[in-house]
Hints:
This protein is mainly alpha-helical.
Amino acid sequence: KIATGPMVGLRLGKKTAWSALGSFVAIVGRFLVGIITARLLGPSGTGRLAYLLWFADTVNVVASLGLQNSAMRFVADLRGQGLAEQASRLGQWLHVRYLVLTVVSAAFIGILGRSVNPSQEGHVWQVLAVYFLTQSLGNFYIAFLSGQQSFDIVAKLTLLSSAVFVLAATVGTVFFGVTGAVAGYFIGALPIAVPS
């Protein structure tokens, strides 16, 4: 049976507004960082940064095995059935497996990336591995919160993360170039990853 009525519509509207706000803030933060880093790094540095981020995102897609999507879908389904305790247990079960995959993948990035391209400036591959780890954990947590319909928390965490991200990426890029930009991505991912 599907619940209806004015209160359901109001709750749905509020959750939709929070979800839209979180998405908008994330897009604006990424857009600003893209402009700032492109201006500071120039074409060559921007290309290196894009390659590194692409590498981390590609590993994330392969390594996550869709577990964060499963968390979002099945946690929401169980909660909708009134089985909140089972939803929480499923989230914990998936989180442990996701954590193992993420740690192994982060090690892969740090080791393989450094051996494939040892001339890359500084410790950018190790910083990329740490960014991958925090971003992946944050992605899972956002999916879990979305499954719990906690869009207000998602939006607040995204707002904090985006503000930290813009500041950290700017400062990191100014002082440390591409490695600093990647460190900015890592620092920006912390506000969402830490509570996970």
